[in-house]
Write a structure and sequence with these properties.
The chain is an all-alpha fold. It folds into two domains: 128 residues, no CATH class; 31 residues, no CATH class. It contains seven helices and no strands. Helix 4 runs antiparallel to helix 5. It is elongated and about 55 Å long.
């Protein structure tokens, strides 16, 4: 594995900082009365808090998943985030908040969707790398993409042998 660069260390530090800030936010006592007053309706307060769970864990999964630069160990971010969500819900009972299994499931949903985004991004990144790094331009992959065109990078081996007997 290559040595981590300064940028990757900063990326990982930002993930850790975001995780710490989210943990603090989850463990602060937030009265329902003030949330309902700010959002003017209990239904909106409920929807906002639940969508915040999904979006926060989605963001953390993408940030953490990309911090490892698509090495195989990035997938450990998702179960770590689910465990983090469960632990945060458990500790909420000690700070005058109500723990909820539904919130843990929403956290898991956000981590799963974030993990899917990271896998999709890695797949696209690998596909672009494969397209630009192919040594034989007439490979099957490029023939499927450009069936009517010959790429001018190099002539095929059949053309070289016909020209040079």
């Amino acid at each position: 594995m290559p040595k981590p660069t300064l940028a990757s260390r900063i990326h990982l530090a930002l993930f850790c900082l975001a995780l710490i800030l989210w943990t603090v936010a989850l463990l602060l006592p937030v009265p329902n009365v003030s949330a309902n007053k700010a959002l003017a309706d209990p239904l909106w307060a409920f929807l906002f808090s639940k969508s915040l769970h999904v979006c926060a864990y989605l963001f953390l999964a993408v940030l953490g998943g990309t911090a490892f630069r698509f090495h195989k160990r990035w997938v450990w971010i998702m179960p770590i985030l689910v465990a983090h969500g469960a632990a945060a819900e458990f500790f909420q009972q000690f700070v005058d908040r109500t723990p909820s299994v539904r919130d843990v499931l929403l956290d898991a949903l956000g981590a799963l969707v974030g993990g899917c985004i990271v896998m999709w991004w890695a797949k696209i990144k690998n596909r672009r790398r494969d397209l630009t790094g192919v040594s034989n331009p007439e490979s099957n992959c490029l023939r499927e993409i450009f069936p009517q065109h010959r790429l001018p990078i190099a002539a095929s081996s059949a053309t070289k042998t016909a020209d040079n007997p």
